[in-house]
Structure formats: structure tokens, C-alpha cells
Amino acid sequence: MFLGEHQHTLDAKGRVSLPAKFRAQMTGSLVVSKGLENCLYVHSSDEYTQFLGQLTDRGDFDPKFRKVRRFFSSGALETELDSAGRISVSSNLREYAGLDKDVAVIGNGDRIELWDAEKWAAYNGETTDQIEDVTQELAELGIL
Q1: How confident is the model at residue 28, as a pLDDT?
Q2: 32 CB-contact burial (10 Å; exposed 0-12 / middle 13-18 / buried 19+)
Q3: Which residue among 3, 37, 76, 118 is buried most deeply as judged by most CB within 10 Å?
Q4: What pTM was computed for the model?
């Protein structure tokens, strides 16, 4: 499970270091893909296969599922941790997420998210301001 918030820097070659406690859980092939709210998702290859499989199982006959599947799979990049614990992020994914230098590496349960540090700070501040209303709505729906 990935938890916590860590600040890292994107190097000139488009690589970002993952926190040591995340690296221990990310062995083998990794997949970096577009995420929601203009962040990037980092999954283990197995987790990404399961994630994409949920969309693939719906078939090609519903245009909404095709759009969502294309969103998450187009531009996705298979990579591995290098000897320094870094992953490469392609230029198209860096552009999508607005990653230039300072990167917030966020643990989000079954995946890691990469955010532009300023965008993360703004998003996190907005979420903090709204969290009581959101949790109340979810509780009323019986989800929490």
C-alpha cells in the first residue's frame, strides 16, 4: 500500500526518484499513465493490467468505455526503476501533468501519483476545505 506525500525533483532527463518505501513495493515493470486531475498514475505492471482490464471487459460497443480506455492507455509508458530508484517520464506525460521541476509523489493506496508540486498544493488545499462536505455526502449515500 502506498501512503504519504513526498517532494522530489524531476531531473534534466525527465526522471524522478521514488521514495525508498515505495521502491520496495515496486519491483519489475511499472506503468506510468495519464491520471485524473492532470496528475500521472504509476502502477506495477500487474496492477495496471487489472486496472485496464476493468475497462477492457466492457467491450468496444460503449463509446464512453472506449474514451476512458484510450485516455488511460494512450501515452502510457512501461518503465522500470533504475539503479538510483528513479523512473523515466516521457515528454508527453510530463507535458500532460505540467511536470517541470518540483514533483509531489503521492501514495494513493494501490498506486503512486505524480503531481506538479504547485498543482498538488492547490488541489490539496481545495480538498481540505471541502472534505467535510464530501464525506457527509458519501455517508448519506451509505458509502462511508
Answers
A1: 85
A2: buried
A3: 76
A4: 0.91
And the C-alpha cell for 68?
476512458
The gap from C-alpha 121 to its chain's centroid, in whole angstroms, comes to 16
Backbone angles phi, psi at 80, to 5 degrees: -140, 160
**In sequence order, what are the beta bridge partners of 116?**
103
Higher-confidence residue of 28 and 35: namely: 35
Maximum alpha-carbon separation in the chain: 48
pLDDT for residue 108 = 95
pLDDT in tens, 43-69: 999 999 998 888 787 777 888 888 999
| Domains of the chain and any CATH numbers | 5-116 (3.40.1550.20)
**Cell reading at 16:** 524522478
